[in-house]
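Quick illustration, no need to memorize.
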Amino acid sequence: MPEKSGAPFDPFSSLDARERAQVGMGSERERKLWRKIDLHLLPIIALMYLFSFMDRGNAKLEGLMTQLHLTGSRYNVALSYGLFEFPAKWLPGIMFTWGILMMSMGFVKSFSQLVAIRILLGVAEAGFFPGVVFLLTMWYPRYKLMYRIALFTGAAGAAGAFSGLFAYGISFINTSHLEGWSWIFIIEGLVTIVISLIGIFVLVDYPDTAKFLSAEERQFVKQQRSVDIGDDEEGTVAQRVLSAFLDWQIWVTGLTLMSFMAPAYGITFFLPTILNGFGYSVAVSQLLTVPIFVIATIVMIIVAHFSDIMKIRSSFIVAMECVGLVGYIIQITNASTGIKYFGTYLAVTGLYAGVPCVVGWLANNLHGKYKRAVGMAIQVGMGNLGGIIASYIFRIQDEPRFTLGFAIAIGFMCIGLIATAALTYAYHRANVARIDRAKREGINEAEYAIELYVI
């Protein structure tokens, strides 16, 4: 980056000064305000997201395969339902629908019924993740955003841990009509429905309509966002949507997200099976997944916290991709069971911690609320395409080592590293050009800082 007055140039230093000049709220009051907003938004969102992940992976070991005769690639087909993504506002309604469908899965009697409900479940869950990210961008400025994305995304890691404990307990339920896998879906579906009903009354909309904020606080939140996130857009809605489809950075970050999601989905879907292949019993395999996801969730939040403080995204993305890569490479070696179990920690931690970085990176660099909404949906849709790919490359006939799946996942992560490096270079070149142009035209730093890409 260019330098000014002999010191390294920080384009956001003037932005911080502009924030302090614009608002009349002290640092202590501001800290309490953001905490109040966090407590109203994040707990219910994280709880809702947790239950969107609860059904993935554990039912396989509790009789699902044998009772529904999921031979060959049938189990993989049943997993591949997650491509449908679009921005959505009615998050509790989405959750209520997928709760009904999840509960219904406990009563399926055939492969065709399972696939049909999984497709409907994919449609029902489609808008949740991009809808939540978009909602958070309407509340938080860019360098308070990723930490919040990590807090609710961490629910996926918590789901991995909690579902392992839950499935372990369910494995002891034995009735004449339903097996353990059925009870997993039924109970999780019922709880999901209850949480969705709570969400209708608890989940808040945008700052303009937040009754728990005072008029001064609402104005402060809007002012903070307007300083570094531009929501003004020109043209018709159709033109704004089209601009998202034509924006190269959306597709590159979508590819980067896919490089995390394909390996992450793969190891999430099949982690209990992988551990079972190490020689552990079904019950012990379920329990061994718990600490892996706990550690991954903690690291995810720590990474996001320091990324916001340091105002850097790409370096953390590369670091987490490399951690996941090492974990996957260990899995295709002839290392001992203990080393491979350690490798699963690296794989899950690196991949889970990298997802909020990639999602937050694009959210920081997309201006205009319509373009951001569509762009986030495209990116997350590409990420979920990685989930579909993962469900097919981790084939049943490759158990327990899944050599093909691990090898392809490693290839995805290498592609992600290349895409991240290319995007970082492109952002840097664009920033240098904008700074040079602004200096030639005599534009104040605070005026053009909003136009600079976050790197």
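DSSP finds 18 helices and two strands in the chain.
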